[in-house]
């Protein structure tokens, strides 16, 4: 099994998304685990052929572990809008188009919500974190945070769809909130917590 993650380790964060890389680096730092991103190592981006967050996270983590010979953690995540049947979901990055323009992606979410006539603006962010060893089993952990979508977008912090997402129990969007507070409740942190718990339990 795993149980191999320990203080002083250096792991690859198998992402080319700087927003994710920095949030995950903040989560791993207090454990004494140093992170380097796949982008910084010049690793190729594998094609995301999976049909779920978990499958795509596995594909990315295994590719990075194989290419680097290091422990790898990949994050596949996205926004699921209840009134849009869970869209954009695993296509969240693609809604930003070739230029990864999330202003456009947020506009599309809002446009489709208005076109649907729905008054229900509930949504959640979901994250699957896959932990892969160069020659071992891959484990996947998921986390979710529920909230409501607002329009127009508010705040310039975070990344992706953060400026339109207000987590339940708060009034600020993830785009306005202190990044440390987002990291205390995010989908990413909740998946991360399970990864760490499973690691400790196996040691
Ligand atoms: P990698 O595959 O290289 O990790 P990516 O951005 O392509 O980067 P995904 O396929 O997992 O990653 O797409 C996730 C998208 O969902 C991401 O681009 C954001 O637009 C959105 N997303 C995920 N987590 C988010 C968060 O915490 N805040 C805002 N948007 C988020």
Descriptive account of the structure:
The protein contains 6 helices and 6 strands. With 203 residues, the chain is of the alpha/beta class. The termini are close together. The protein has a 6-stranded mixed β-sheet with strand order 2-1-3-4-5-6. The radius of gyration is 17 Å and the shape is globular. Helix content is 34%, strand content 22%.
How is the secondary structure organized here?
Layout: E1 10-13, H1 18-28, E2 34-37, H2 38-41, H3 53-68, E3 72-81, H4 102-116, E4 122-132, E5 138-149, E6 165-167, H5 179-185, H6 187-202
Parallel strand pairs: 1-2, 1-3
Antiparallel strand pairs: 3-4, 4-5, 5-6
Inosine 5'-triphosphate binds at residues 15-17, 20, 48, 60, 75-79, 92-93, 102, 125, 158-162, 174, 186, 188.
């Amino acid at each position: 099994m795993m149980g191999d993650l320990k203080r002083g380790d250096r792991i690859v964060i198998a992402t080319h998304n700087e927003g994710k890389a920095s949030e995950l680096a903040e989560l791993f730092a207090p454990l004494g685990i140093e992170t380097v991103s796949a982008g910084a190592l010049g690793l190729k981006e594998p094609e995301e052929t999976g049909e779920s967050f978990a499958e795509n996270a596995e594909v990315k983590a295994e590719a990075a572990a194989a290419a680097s010979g290091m422990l790898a953690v990949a994050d596949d995540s996205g926004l699921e809008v209840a009134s849009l049947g869970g869209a954009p979901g695993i296509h969240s990055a693609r809604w930003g188009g070739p230029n990864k323009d999330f202003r456009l992606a947020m506009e599309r979410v809002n446009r489709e919500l208005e076109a649907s006539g729905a008054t229900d603006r509930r949504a959640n962010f979901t994250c699957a974190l896959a932990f892969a060893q160069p020659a071992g089993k891959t484990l996947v952990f998921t986390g979710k945070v529920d909230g409501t979508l607002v329009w127009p977008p508010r705040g310039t912090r975070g990344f992706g769809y953060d400026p339109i997402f207000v987590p339940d129990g708060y009034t600020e969007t993830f785009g306005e909130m202190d990044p440390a507070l987002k990291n205390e409740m995010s989908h990413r942190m909740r998946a991360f917590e399970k990864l760490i718990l499973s690691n400790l339990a196996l040691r």
